[in-house]
Amino acid sequence: MRLDAVRKVYGKGGSAVVALAGVTMRFPSGGFTAVMGPSGSGKSTFLQCAAGLDRPTSGSVVLDGEELSGMNENELTRLRRDRIGFIFQAFNLLPALTVEQNVTVPQLLAGRRPNKKAILDVLARVGLLERRKHLPAELSGGQQQRVAIARALATRPAVVFADEPTGALDTRTAAQVLGLLRESAGQQTVVMVTHDPVAASYADRVVFLADGQFVGELHAPTADAVAERMTHLGAWADRVRSTAGGA
C-alpha cells in the first residue's frame, strides 16, 4: 500500500483547513506499522483516506494494486468489503448475535456463503473457539475486541486498519490484543493509529505525522523511544502553530 502526495483540505477560501499536506508513505506488504502524532496532526484523516472512507483533495492512494481515486462509490464499497479489515476502539458487535455470527456478518452482507472452516480457524487464532456460541454481553471487553479482530481477519483482507484498538482496554488485555495484531502481520498488512507509545512498540515501524505532514519514522521501536519522539513533536507542533498564529 502507498500514499503519494496525498492532500486533504476541508472547506474553501479563508476558512479552509489543511488536514493532510502532501503525505507520501509506503506500507510494506505484511508489515505492522503504527501511525502517531500530536492532537490535530492528521491521523484520523490519514486513516480515512488510506482506507477509502474519504477521498483526498489531490494525490493518490494505491491499495492492493488498486488506485482508489479512479473508483466510484460502489467500487470503493466492494474494495473495503473484500480487501480491508477494520478494527475500532468501539467493538461494534451486534448484541443479538453470537460470537460466530458476528464474525460471519461481513461475508453475509457481501452475499457470500461463510467459509465455516475459515471462521473456526480465525476464532481459534484469537482464542475464542470455545466461546463461539456466546453473546457479546457474556464476554469481557478484551474478548469482545478479539471478536472484532476475528471479524476483520475472517475475509482474509490485504490490509487491516486499526484505529486506537486498545483505547478501551486495561493494560494486560491490551497486550493480548496487540500480540494478536502482531501475529496477524505477515498474513496481512496492519496499519494502526494510536496515541499510546507502548501500543506502538508492538509494530515493526512507527511513522509520525505533525500538522498534516510526514515528519519521520522509527524502526524496531521501543516505547521509550516513541514517547521521546512524541514529546519533541508536540513541542514542535506547538511552536509551528504559535508562529503561524502570529504571522
Topology summary:
Blueprint: E1 2-10, E2 17-26, E3 32-36, H1 43-50, E4 58-63, E5 66-67, H2 73-83, E6 84-88, H3 99-109, H4 116-125, H5 141-154, E7 159-163, H6 171-184, E8 189-193, H7 197-200, E9 205-210, E10 213-219, H8 223-246
Parallel strand pairs: 3-8, 3-9, 6-7, 7-8
Antiparallel strand pairs: 1-2, 1-4, 4-5, 9-10
Would you give an account of this structure?
The protein is built from eight helices and ten strands. 39% of the residues lie in helices and 24% in strands. The protein is globular and about 55 Å long. Helix 3 packs parallel to helix 5, helix 4 crosses helix 5 and helix 5 packs parallel to helix 6. The model has no long low-confidence stretch (mean pLDDT 91).
**Outline type:** globular
Helical proportion, percent range: 25-40%
Can you give the mean pLDDT? 91
Strands, count: 10
Q: Strands of the largest sheet, in order across it?
A: 6-7-8-3-9-10
Low-confidence sequence ranges: none
Secondary structure tally, helices = 8
Distance between termini? 38 Å
Percent in strands: 15-25%
Write down the oligomeric state: single chain
Structural class: alpha/beta
SSE string, helices as H and strands as E: EEEHEEHEHHHEHEHEEH
The main sheet comes to: 6 strands, mixed
Overall radius of gyration: 19 Å
Offer a quick outline of the entry:
By secondary structure, the protein is of the alpha/beta class. It has helices at residues 43-50, 73-83, 99-109, 116-125, 141-154, 171-184, 197-200, 223-246, and strands spanning 2-10, 17-26, 32-36, 58-63, 66-67, 84-88, 159-163, 189-193, 205-210, 213-219. The relative contact order is 0.18.
